[in-house]
Amino acid sequence: MPSPPPPPAPPAPELFTWEFATDPYPAYAWLREHAPVHRTKLPSGVEAWLVTRYGDAKQALADPRLSKNPAHHDEPAHAKGKTGIPGERKAELMTHLLNIDPPDHTRLRRLVAKAFTPRRVAEFAPRLQELTDDLIDRFAARGSADLIHEFAFPLPIYAICDLLGVPREDQDDFRDWAGMMIRHGGGPRGGVARSVKKMRGYLAELIHRKREALSDVPEPGEDLVSGLIRASDQGEHLSENEVAAMAFIILFAGFETTVNLIGNGVHTLLAHPEQRARLQAALAVEDSSLLETGIEELLRYDGPVELATWRFATRPLSIGGQDIATGDPVLVVLAAANRDPARFADPDTLDLGRRDNQHLGYGHGIHYCLGAPLARLEGRSALATLLTRLPDLQLAVDPAELRWRGGLIMRGLRTLPVEFTPTTESGGIS
């Protein structure tokens, strides 16, 4: 007798609903198994390919046939503001690392890297710890807080403003503009565009002031905007538009990813008390090794960037056996690739001590996130200080009440209400 036919595949999941935003991982598991390179219509109306398997994702992230330049899109969607960052075109902020290819990308990244070095990040650690402790001091005696709005959100804003060289008296303006970008991530785009325009105007003025005041010789601890102005390669300098665009993308890409790293990280630890206790025990004996691997595992397990930014096929190609036409948009789903059982053992299990953890949380290839060392430093400082100073931190609402922000690229919570034993003790960890 002939063998019975295999059971039909379960129906395709619905994507980009609020239910999907709460927990996209079952849908991504379905796509990895049944449609690993899947064409879909996005909420904006633009059609794009979603790449969900780790091997295909890694290939796509490094494939030179997939351009970052929106000019290669075969539809006028970008001109209508349906791809890219709202308002960046009108504000003349297009010339940044997320939108260009070699050789311009190579030149700009090399110049920016000179001003954004690991040494600069390491030197910033004491100031970052000061910011972290100051924010916790503001709510520690109250016994409750919204960790998104009172901690995870302001920390990277103030940190990046300090690095850029934005005067302290102007940093609350940046906080307001950045807040508009986050609040409207999945809704009306006009507010985002207005914030981008205001930010562009401020950056133009700041660059002009700093260029006028720039000394002939770099000073110790020179800020990043001054470093970008000064950065040169074989006598070639960044233009003012390029400096503004780079400062903008460092702020835009750097703050929301870190908000989500901290917020998602705390949320994940609260949902896995045995792993959280394991990390607190290590911190209590000043063992930082679990914190180092733990940040990487949190980036893999429920990272801040759900989909990599837009790519466009410059000629026909194949990804995972699927033909992609010239001009087609391709979105690499980092969240799906980072849970691929073909690459990670027990991918749906959180293991802060995971060693073989080459996740794609910050991308891969020439567009690997330049600010990843700073984000990791911020994540380590935030989690270690919270868990040490507020050791009985607990979620203050039913987990089902938490809401995730809408949007396509980023993954983050709207709020994270917590409670803990009030403390008047100030200061940080040793």
Shape: globular
Distance between the termini: 73 Å
The poorly predicted ranges are: 77-81, 86-94, 184-189
Order of strands across the main sheet: 1-2-10-7-3
The counted number of beta strands is 12
What is the residue-mean pLDDT, rounded to a whole number?
A: 85
Briefly note the structural class of the backbone: alpha+beta
Strand percentage lies at 5-15%
Q: List the secondary-structure elements in sequence, H or E.
A: HHEEHEHHHEHHHHHEEHHHEEEEHHEE
Describe the model:
The protein has 430 residues and is of the alpha+beta class. Helix content is 46%, strand content 9%. The protein has 16 helices and twelve strands. The strands form four sheets. The chain has a five-stranded mixed β-sheet with strand order 1-2-10-7-3. The chain has a three-stranded antiparallel β-sheet with strand order 4-12-11. The chain has a two-stranded antiparallel sheet with strand order 5-6. α12 crosses α14. The chain is globular and about 85 Å long. It starts with 17 loop residues before the first helix and ends in an 11-residue tail after the last strand.
